[in-house]
Write a structure and sequence with these properties.
This protein is α+β, with helices and mostly antiparallel strands and 471 residues long. Helix content is 33%, strand content 29%. It contains nine helices and 19 strands. The strands form four sheets. It has an eight-stranded antiparallel beta barrel. A four-stranded antiparallel β-sheet has the order 1-2-3-6, with no helix packed on it. β2 and β3 form a beta hairpin. The longest helix is centred in the middle third of the chain and has 38 residues. It is elongated and about 100 Å long.
Length: 471
C-alpha cells in the first residue's frame, strides 16, 4: 500500500485565511490546496477543493497553479473541469499529477467559471486588496454589532473568530461582498460561512459606533423598563387586594376582578415555565387587563426565539449526521427541515437531502476489500474484467487493490463525495476522476455499484470505456 505524506497545504477553512486570494465576483473560492507525495517513489499529486460561493450552479471552470520547488525551479499547471456541476454552496475537488516531488509552495487562481448567468473571467491584473477594514469600535458597539449579526445562533464569547469579526467592516462591490468573517459571497443574501445577513450588514449605521452604542443603550433601557413593569404589576396586585376589602359590598365587580387576577397569575406561571404558546393565548384572552397586551407580545417573541433555536439545533444535528456518514438519518433530518423552509434555505436543504439520499445508497457498499471488477476497453466490445478489491468508507475515503497485472498491481487510495457523486483515485493509470453512476443489476441478477469514467460516449464504438463494478 502506498504511503503518502502531505508536503504542502493551504486551507481556507482556517478562519478566513484564503488560499491564494479571492477575486471580485468570482463564483468559486479555492478552499484547500495541498500536495501529497509518495514517500517511496517521490511522485507528487496536486489536490484542490473549490467552493461555490454564489447562488448559481457552476457548470465548468478553469484554474491555474504555480508550483515552486526546492531547487528553485517552477511548474505551471492548468486544470479544466468541463462538467463540474457544483451546486450553490457546495464543493468540488480534483487531483493532478506533478512532475516533481520537492514542492515547497503552491499558489492558485481561478481563471474562469461558467454559470447560467454567463462566464466569469479573471482580470489580467490581479486585484486582491479585499481585506476587511478594522472599524475600531468600542466594546459596547462591538457587542451590539455581534448580537445583530450572530446572536442568538452563536452566543457571544463562544467563538473568538466571530468576536474579532464584529470589529471588521464589510467589503462590497457590484453583485458581490466579503463578510466581516472573511468569506466572499456572490449574489447571496446570507454569508456562506457565518450566515450573517447582508441586509443587516448594510443597514443604516451598521458600522457607526455612535449608532451602535445608542442602540445598545436603548436595548438596556427596554430591559430595565420590562423589570419596572413587573414591579408595577406587583403594586397592582397589592392595590387590588386593598380594593377587595374596600369594595366587598360590590360582590359582582370584585368577583370579576378576582377571576381576571387569578387568570393573569396563571398566565404568568405559564410564561415563567417557558410554555410561551399557552401563555400568549392566556394573555390575549385577558384583553386590556393590567399589562396583559404587552405580555402577550413578549410571549409571542419568546416563542419565536425558541422556535429559531430549536430549528438551528435540528440543522446542526442533521449536518453532524451527514459529516459522520449517517446519511439515512441526515436525509430524514433534512427532509423534516424542508417542511417550513423557503428561498435559498429550501434550495440548499434540497441539495443536501439529495446528497444524503445518494450517500445512503452508496453506504450499502461500505467496507474493506469488497469484491470488485475493473473493465477497460472499447465501448460496445466484450471487455474482460480484471478482479480487484474495493474499499469504501463513510469518512469519504476509498481504495482499490490489484494483485495483477504489473501496471495495476498495488493499492490506489482516493476519496469520494456524495454531493458531486464523484470518486477520485490520484495517480491511477486508468483515470483519476470517476462518476459514481449508482446501483445496477448484472445479467446474473447481482446488484453492484457502478463507477465509470465521466462523459462516456456510448454512440461512438471507437471511444474508450472504463469502469468498476463493486459488489
Amino acid at each position: 500500500m502506498a504511503d503518502y505524506k502531505v508536503v504542502f497545504r493551504a486551507d481556507a477553512s482556517t478562519r478566513g485565511a484564503r488560499v491564494s486570494g479571492w477575486e471580485a465576483c468570482c463564483p468559486l473560492e479555492l478552499e484547500v490546496v495541498q500536495v501529497s507525495r509518495d514517500v517511496v517513489t517521490g511522485k507528487a499529486y496536486l489536490q484542490a477543493k473549490v467552493r461555490n460561493v454564489s447562488r448559481e450552479m457552476v457548470g465548468s471552470f478553469k484554474a491555474a497553479f504555480d508550483v515552486a520547488c526546492a531547487t528553485g525551479s517552477a511548474e505551471h499547471v492548468e486544470v479544466e473541469q468541463l462538467d463540474a456541476d457544483i451546486a450553490a454552496g457546495s464543493c468540488g475537488s480534483f487531483a493532478q499529477a506533478l512532475s516533481r516531488g520537492d514542492v515547497e509552495a503552491v499558489s492558485g487562481r481561478i481563471l474562469s467559471a461558467r454559470t447560467a448567468k454567463g462566464v466569469w473571467s479573471a482580470p489580467i491584473d490581479r486585484q486582491l486588496e479585499l481585506a476587511n477594514p478594522e472599524l475600531g469600535l468600542s466594546e459596547k458597539a462591538r457587542r451590539e454589532r455581534y448580537d445583530r449579526l450572530w446572536a442568538p445562533r452563536v452566543a457571544f464569547g463562544t467563538d473568538a473568530h466571530l468576536a474579532a469579526a464584529a470589529d471588521k467592516g464589510l467589503v462590497k462591490g457590484e453583485g458581490w461582498w466579503v463578510c466581516p468573517c472573511g468569506r466572499p459571497n456572490v449574489g447571496r443574501e446570507e454569508c456562506i460561512g457565518c450566515h450573517a445577513s447582508y441586509g443587516v450588514l448594510t443597514s443604516e449605521g451598521a458600522e457607526e459606533e455612535t449608532v451602535l452604542e445608542r442602540a445598545a443603550d436603548e436595548r438596556a433601557a427596554a430591559a430595565a423598563e420590562a423589570a419596572r413593569k413587573v414591579k408595577r404589576r406587583n403594586i397592582t396586585i397589592a392595590v387590588a387586594a386593598i380594593a377587595v376589602v374596600a369594595l366587598a359590598v360590590v360582590g359582582v365587580f370584585v368577583s370579576s376582578y378576582l377571576t381576571k387576577l387569578s387568570d393573569y397569575d396563571k398566565a404568568m406561571e405559564l410564561f415563567e415555565r417557558g410554555e410561551y404558546a399557552k401563555a400568549k393565548m392566556a394573555f390575549y384572552e385577558l384583553g386590556d387587563f393590567s399589562n396583559a397586551e404587552e405580555m402577550a407580545k413578549e410571549a409571542s417573541d419568546a416563542q419565536e426565539n425558541e422556535r429559531r433555536a430549536e430549528r438551528e439545533a435540528e440543522r446542526t444535528a442533521a449536518m453532524e449526521a451527514y459529516a459522520r456518514g449517517d446519511y439515512q438519518q441526515a436525509m430524514v433530518d433534512f427532509n423534516r427541515l424542508m417542511s417550513d423552509a423557503e428561498g435559498d434555505e429550501l434550495e440548499e436543504l434540497q441539495k443536501l437531502s439529495e446528497a444524503a439520499e445518494f450517500g445512503a445508497t452508496v453506504s450499502a457498499y461500505f467496507g474493506d476489500d469488497r469484491e470488485a471488477w475493473y473493465f477497460d476497453g472499447k465501448v460496445g466490445s466484450s471487455n474482460v474484467g480484471r478482479e480487484c478489491s474495493f474499499s469504501l468508507h463513510a469518512d469519504g475515503t476509498c481504495a482499490v487493490t490489484f494483485s495483477a497485472p504489473k501496471d495495476l498491481a498495488g493499492t490506489w487510495e482516493g476519496s469520494w463525495d456524495p454531493e458531486t457523486r464523484q470518486l477520485s483515485l490520484p495517480g491511477f493509470p486508468g483515470g483519476e476522476m470517476w462518476d459514481i453512476v449508482g446501483v445496477e443489476e448484472s445479467s446474473a441478477g447481482r446488484s453492484y455499484l457502478n463507477v465509470e469514467l465521466p462523459d462516456l460516449d456510448y454512440s461512438d464504438p471507437s471511444s474508450r470505456y472504463a469502469g468498476f463494478s463493486i459488489y
